[in-house]
Amino acid sequence: MNxxxxxxxxSSLKYQLIDMDNEAVLAKGxxxxxxxxxxxxxxxxxxxxxxxxxxPILDHKQALKILLDILVDAEFGxxxxxxxxxxxxxxxxHGAEKFADSVxxxxxxxxxxxxxxxxxxxxNPPNIQGIEACEAIxxxxxxxxxxxxxxxxxMPAEAFLxxxxxxxxxxxxxxxxxxxxxxxxxxxxxxxxxxxxHMSDLRxxxxxxxxxxxxxxxxxxxxxxxxxxxxxLSGLIMGTRCGDIDPxxxxxxxxxxxMTYHEIDAIMNKKSGVLGISGVSxxxxxxxxxxxxxNKRAQLxxxxxxYKVRSTIGAYAAVMGGVDVIVFTAGxxxxxxxxxxxxxNGLEYLGTRLDRExxxxxxxxxEISVEGSKVKIFVVPTNExxxxxxxxxxxxxxxxxxxx
Length: 404
Known about the structure:
Blueprint: E1 2-8, E2 13-19, E3 24-32, E4 39-44, E5 51-55, H1 60-71, E6 87-92, E7 103-104, H2 107-116, H3 124-137, E8 143-147, H4 157-160, H5 166-172, H6 181-194, E9 203-208, E10 214-219, E11 222-226, H7 249-256, H8 261-270, H9 273-278, H10 284-292, H11 296-320, E12 325-329, H12 330-335, H13 337-344, E13 366-367, E14 376-379, H14 384-396
Keywords: ATP-binding, Cytoplasm, Kinase, Magnesium, Metal-binding, Nucleotide-binding, Transferase
Family: Belongs to the acetokinase family.
Cofactor: Mg(2+); Mn(2+)
């Protein structure tokens, strides 16, 4: 069974074609700057040179048409015809409370996704465009939606509710939803496998650290708390996002800087975080270089990030009654040797003991705690695509394909 995994952003599209008989990636790539005359298309097959083109790509439908043409191309393709694509799995950022699991896409589901777009106006519309484009080009191929928020639907009310009038939740759906759920679920399952245990027997703190970052508390295989909230803006300080702040700061800045809410919102999402503090970059590698050269604001930005991740880990150890394993994933989590060291420095009271020699690793599954550490520490590269493909296979494998 071949599953095409599609992840649509506002001006981007990432994809992987996966043979689910052995979970081998047959091809992967991405489109950047969709809607521009100089859009960039890259396509990669195992053991082959990467194809890269710059050309006008007007919309997601055109990008998908180019993608499907490449997959069956005599020179660059990996399948002989589109009939070899059995199903498509779509990453959808927000499922609200409507979806606690991945789901086969139907007209009713599409209506629900449109409803969810009201609370995720930046994220869900591109996801919906990708689904509609696939349905137009491949009308007989089943489509599955896999939600970033679904894994966190197991959070208890005391964790997901805000201290606002209850009607804000019942009438408008204002609550903590959490994101990066597909990533948190994958690394939790994988670290349990690496430890030779089942998730149901573990208390896991998963640290998905990248330009967007979140931490999740996973007890007995269920998410019971996570740092992102109603939107991906809250929680940790991130690349360009401010994370948690006193809400009274928003009207204060609107007044003092004579800005509209939308202008302040843009600052909180795009000009804050480690970029805003350091004044250097949102790229942690650049910030680390600046800090090493004596830039005090760059060092402050790193210190703030490490402090917030470390304090969140401590809070989640408290709500779970302890922790058995801390796992780092995503760009910074997988590659940030110094960041992992700084975050773990001060967590010894929990029973963690980082092995600095083992920690000298990038992008590789490995335990980085010392032998005999009470609390294990792991690096596990995330693989959201395989989780999307697995759910797509699970949901569509029982379908009678001739009906599609």
